[in-house]
Amino acid sequence: IKTLDYLTKTNVFVVDLLQKGLTENKIKQILKTKGLKVRDEIKELYQTVNGTSVSDTYLGLQYFFPGNIMLSLEKAIELYDEECIEYASWEEGYLPIFWNGNRDYLLVDCLNKKCGVYFYSPDEFRFDGIVKKYDTMELLFATVLQCFEVKAYQLGRTLEDIKYDGELVIAISKQMNPESVYWDFKPPLSLDC
Prior knowledge:
By secondary structure, the chain is an alpha+beta fold. It has helices at residues 2-9, 14-17, 24-32, 40-48, 73-86, 137-149, 166-176; strands at residues 18-20, 49-52, 63-65, 68-70, 94-99, 105-109, 117-120, 131-134, 153-154, 163-164.
C-alpha cells in the first residue's frame, strides 16, 4: 500500500500506532464468523497492517488520513456487530474499515462484491443509508496518497501538524472517483471519514 509507504517515509505519528498485519487464515476466520466474504482487497489490507491501535492517550494522532482512523479487523467486527447488527444502521455485509472515532464510517461490501467504498453517518440527512465515496478500495488509497503528495492532507508528530485543504481534497477526490456521488453533494459533506 503506497499510502502506508508515504506515511512511513514522512515519519508521521500514526505509523507508531499501526499494528502488525494478520495471516490470511486469521482474516478468513474472523470474517467467516459473521458470514462475510474475504475480498482480495480486504485480505491484502489486513495482511499488510491490522489497523491503528486505538487509545484515548493519542486522540487525533491516530488518523491514517485526516478524520479517519484505520480500524483493526477485530474492532471493525465489534463495530459491525454494534452498528449493523444491533442498531441496523446499514445493510448487512458492509464492513467498516475506517471511522472518525465517533459514528462516521467508511464501509466495504463483503457480501455482494459491490465495488466501492461507502460513507455512513447517522448525522447526515441528505441521503438515506450509505453513499459511495470512493469508486474502489484501490482508489481510496490512491486518492489519499494524491492528497498527501499535494499537501491537501498533512499529518505529523503533533496535533498542530494535522491539516487539510477541503477544496483541494474535494477537487482531487471528485476527479479520481467519478462514479462516487458523495462528492456531488452541495455543500460538500464533512471531510471526516
